[in-house]
Structures are given as structure tokens and as C-alpha cells.
């Protein structure tokens, strides 16, 4: 697989992911259910494991494939919980997979911290008003 081909695919996927972001319409009341976030994290935990595994195997195609999936999921969660957008795929480099592995690890820590803080804040859903 040529480097130019991979670069074009990265650019296409970045365009797709940025178009997928929902429009912001002012203040949006949002309910944050941290149990749902914890459940989501549980379902996605194998995705982080897969990325780490394929980085160790130096399999750029599978790292890219699972990275795109994780990026899409992270976009939704960050939007839903008002967190700063995680730019995971921005760091994909088929010749240096350790960079995206590090960013995936940072994203996983962010999610775990959100769950821990949310669970400590209340055992019930927390309503916040987010200004966009």
C-alpha cells in the first residue's frame, strides 16, 4: 500500500468525520448519565486493546480501521458530554504507529476520568446547560 494512498484515505476520513459533527444550536440542555458512559466504555474497551495489539504487530491498516471507528465514537461521546474533541486520527502515521497508540491511551484516560468524576458527583444523572 503506497504512502500517498494512505494519506488520501486519511484526508477523506477526516473530511467525513468533520462533516458528521452535529450542528450547534445555542444552549442545549443535556443530561449526562455516567452509567451509560461507563457501559459505552465497557463495550469499546476491546477497541483500545485492538489498537494497542495492531500497533505492536505494526499492522497500519488495522490500526487505521479501528482508529476510525474509535474516532467516530469519541466524537459522539465528547459532543454528548461537552468534553473537548479528541483528535485521534490526526496523529495516524502509518510509519510511526506509536504516536496514535499514545493518543489513544490519552483518550482512554480522558474517558475513564470522566466516568470517575461523574460517578463521584452523583449516582443519578446530572443535568447541565451547555453553551455552544
Q: Assign an overall shape.
A: globular
Distance between the termini: 41 Å
Which bin fits the share of residues in helices? 55-70%
Structural class: mainly alpha
**How would a textbook summarize the main sheet?**
2 strands, antiparallel
With helices defined by DSSP (H or I, 4 residues minimum), what is the helix count? 4
The fraction of residues assigned to DSSP E strands is: 5-15%
Q: From the structure provided, what is the oligomeric state, counting identical versus distinct chains?
A: single chain
Please state the CA-atom Rg, rounded to the nearest Å: 16 Å
Strand order of the largest sheet: 1-2
Q: What is the string of helix and strand elements?
A: HEHHHE
Low-confidence stretches: 25-29, 121-132
Output mean pLDDT.
80
Tell me how many strands there are. Answer: 2
Structurally, how many domains make up the residues? 1
Plain-language structure description:
The chain has helices spanning 3-20, 34-56, 60-81, 97-121; strands spanning 27-32, 126-131. Residues 25-29 and 121-132 have low confidence and may be disordered. A two-stranded antiparallel ribbon has the order 1-2. The protein is 67% helix and 9% strand. It has 4 helices and 2 strands, in the order αβαααβ. The relative contact order is 0.20. By secondary structure, the chain is mainly alpha-helical. It has one domain (3-131). It is globular and about 45 Å long. The chain starts with a helix and ends with a strand. The longest helix has 25 residues, at 97-121.
